[in-house]
Amino acid sequence: MKIYIPRDAAAKALGAERIVKAVEAEIKERGIDAQIIRNGSRGMIWLEPLVEVETAEGRVGYGPVTVADVKSIFKGDSDKALGDVEQIPFFAAQTRLTFARVGKIDPLSLSDYEAHGGLVGLRRAITMSAEAVVDEVKTSGLRGRGGAGFPTGIKWDTVRLAQGEKKYIVCNADEGDSGTFADRMIMEGDPFTLIEGMIIAGLATHATKGFVYIRSEYPDAIEQMEAACVIARDAGVLGNVLNSGHQFDIEIRVGAGAYVCGEETSLLNSLEGKRGTVRAKPPLPALQGFMGRPTVVNNVISLATVPVIFEKGAQHYADFGLGRSKGTMPIQIAGNVKFGGLFETAFGMPLGDLVNKIGGGTASGRPVKAVQVGGPLGAYMPVSKFDTPFGYEDFDQKGGLIGHAGIVVFDDTADMLGMARFAMEFCAVESCGKCTPCRIGAVRGVETIDRIAAGDNSAVEILTDLCETMKDGSLCALGGFTPFPVMSALQNFPEEFSTAKEAAE
Amino acid sequence: MTQAQPTPEAIGETIARHLHLEGPLLPILHDLQHEFGFVPETAVPLIAAELNIGRAEVHGVVSFYHDFRDAPAGKHVVKICRAEACQSVGANALSDHALAKLGGDWHMTTPNGNITIEPVYCLGLCACGPAVLVDDQLEGRVDAARMDEILAECGA
Q1: A223 Cβ partners below 8 Å, 6+ apart?
Q2: Could you say which of B26, B27, B125 has the minimum Cβ distance to residue A13?
Q3: Distance (Å, rounded) from C-alpha B95 to C-alpha B89?
Q4: Which of A11, A52, A492, B55 has its CA 20 to 30 A from that of B155?
């Protein structure tokens, strides 16, 4: 008998370790033969800790489980029973490609990984030329899942054709955007898929060394990735890759609490042991990246999606999606939402459906006021824009961005002027200091919003002008995109910026 | 984690463990902080000499990153997430509550040395906020009552 209890950080934060102890005690007391497997999370965070018991009828779920529920689960009369986990509507409605194994398998069992399609893609890629590997990724239409949406295949091709005695694959696991946790979930729930994706990137570009740069706020993901690399090395997946003669190894590196290091060039500086300041481009990291050598910098989800593209074929992947946004996206529904979690689906679902139909509206039961899509640099989308289909270009046209696909829901009590101020304050705290519009602009932005709050109407124009300067003049997305949340709050909720004035008058 | 002033030998041993890496500075600083609870000022010239870079350069790196401390923290470190997703479910009120209870502002350490309180921007628990990190233990859906318990358990 197998009992699954996630060791995902969210499950742990909601008490999974206490449940493990209680289940162990119950197993001992009943003297039964049962094994506890620490799987990843199924992504239905409102049901965590979600315990699954393997039965003849499939895996039966119970959640959210408290210690008091454990005895009744064993007795078979628990009121937390959910039936077959995969039939829960939130789960059943998804198209899981990247996250196909997360929650299902034991994340650190390589045999479990292989039994569920793992390494099929790598074995196929080994038989192909580097150029053919790159072409496959191009055909899939995969675009950078970190937020910028740059075509992954084109980036790989640049590195493939670059001259260099040593090339690198750097995985950006500095997932600092509020409302996003897909990188964390896949590293904790299916680490081998990231490893496999990085090896395939190595085959495509002749890179022999990979780094995974994980933020220090993710201790569980760091531990899991380190453990997975040791297992992969021992099994001959890393090193001389499956005896193919191709060399590839991976090193895990830990960030140090700087949000800006999620920007690829500051990440490279940080990796080299420097201050995490942004580099001017060109030169592109693809040509002069880590230590000045050709380097692929890809987000976790981009790389973790590569194995399924090679397993099922590029066309299979490209057949999902909308327009130039091909494939699926793991959308993270977060904040003040009833059914929060990770929902992987083809591009194209309207924003409002994600928030209201899938997410069930707010957790507080109050009306939705706005959602911030794409992290702290993403726009606040009002309910009037809820018909926007979830895709790169579609959001761009509506003055927003999908970023790393986090949706943070706010109810009608949200203070939009306060959120705009926070965006500037965050930018001031996290600015790397290299360019003036970001370093000085963010500080002035906070001051200007304080003036508006105090009733100075003329400051609105100054704020608008400041945002233009930051947008046009900043070196990277931190200063360049902070105007998105600020201006979207101002434009979509102007009354909140003038009521402050009236109240002061 | 000891809080006595580390000896140059101990610092040197820690540095030496990472010299084979490409770009070893961040791993060195993390390890020093892990060993000693902070990055001792006395380590700066030793690192500079080993890596053949300037002391100012090392200092610049140490001071750039939020994680590195130049003095030991309190016995327990409580980090409260201030990012948007947690704000949408009441993180600001929770932070105000905790700071008022301790009678200070972010980054303070209680006079008894038991608790240092810090902001953190996202712990990846965005669908179960407000999120808090107590030393290495994550907690989701923390309310004021639970925060009181946490602070009491840490010896506020």
Answers
A1: none
A2: B125
A3: 12
A4: A11
Test the B interface: residue of A355, A408, A412 with most B CBs within 10 Å: A408
Q: CB of A5 within 8 A of CB of A20? A: yes
Residue A44 is classified by DSSP as B
Question: How far is CA A292 from each of CA A268, A286, B39, rounded to the nearest angstrom?
Answer: 10, 10, 29
Of the candidates A13, A46, A179, the beta carbon closest to that of B85 is on: A179
Residue A492 is encoded by which pair of tokens? 């979509």
Burial of residue B118 (CB within 10 Å: 0-12, 13-18, 19+) is: middle
Q: Which residues contact A60 (CB under 8 A, 6 or more apart)?
A: A52, A53, A81, A82, A83, A84, A85
The length of chain A is 505
B46 in Cβ contact with B59 (< 8 Å) = no
What is the value of pTM for the model shown? 0.96
ipTM, two decimals, is 0.96
- Give the closest of B66, B83, B141 to A257, CB-based: B66
- Asked if the Cβ–Cβ distance from B29 to A256 is below 8 Å, we say yes
- Angstrom distance (rounded) from CA B17 to CA B28: 8
- With beta carbons less than 8 A apart as the criterion, state whether A321 and A141 touch: yes
Q: For A270-322, what is each residue's pLDDT tens digit?
A: 999 999 999 999 999 999 999 999 999 999 999 999 999 999 999 999 999 98
**Tokens standing for residue B121:** 């921007």
